[in-house]
Input
Amino acid sequence: MAIEKKYKSFRSFYPYYLTEHADATNRVLHFMGTLGLLALLIVAIVLQKWWMLALIPVCGYGFAWVGHYFIEKNRPATFTYPMFSLASDFVMFWHILTGQLNKKMAEAKRNIN
Output
């Protein structure tokens, strides 16, 4: 049975994505996974250890899925919206780094409800 996709654009998806990451610990796990995959990518390129590229999805998704299954207790958006979800993870990572996340979370809650 196919799942109906409600979100047709990244702009409409991202607020939903943020509400699925309400728990700060889950967001920290996502941040760690994204940071880890970026570090793996850089190390693999610098050392030319191409086998390390296979660890990137394990690191990124591993941290994120632990956060969803054990903390948020929700289904990762990756399964329904793989590209929007991947892009959202990097945008959320940037919003955390630049101190914009609290503002974006508040906007998302207003827009979803």
In short: The two ends are 28 Å apart (CA to CA). The mean pLDDT is 93. Residues 24-47 form the longest helix (24 residues). The chain has one domain: 10-112.
